[in-house]
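Entry for the shared binder. Reason: the reviewer on the internal report wants the predicted structure included alongside the sequence.
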Amino acid sequence: YHRWRTKETHLSKFNQTEIEAMLGSYTKVLFVRDPFQRLIATFLQGMGMNPSFSSFVQDVLDSGTHNASAAWKPLVSLCRPCLVQYDYVVMFGFHRQELGHLLRRTGLPVESILPEFTDTQVQWTYRWLSEQMFSELSVQQQKQLSHFYRWDLAAFSFSSSFLSD
């Protein structure tokens, strides 16, 4: 379809029939990450210009979901997993395992394409960082964050997230 070759990248620019045809013709892959880890990464990258993680989290909570930056906005509102049926969901921290499976399913050579991942080290580091950062938050902030990301926590299996409780 000629309009598919245009530079439009937002599905909202197409009608429902075109959207369904496009989504049906692609392999859809969604990369997800624990929302609390996304907050930590954003804070550490300097997007949170606050002196403390607790202040940064309070700003995130005060912004609400409608005014939230894409860096910490709930994934469900960004990628619409209830509307788009993704073929694969790849969890951060399991890239080597999951991308290897995806490449094998598509018939591509796995070992020659995948870079070296350090998934185990990344998981351990974020677990330690999460413990440290989570302890800085008040109980009220912890509950508010869990509520803020409730749909992400329901949609994806972040079983070891500090927000899952």
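Summary line for the report: The chain has a mean pLDDT of 81.
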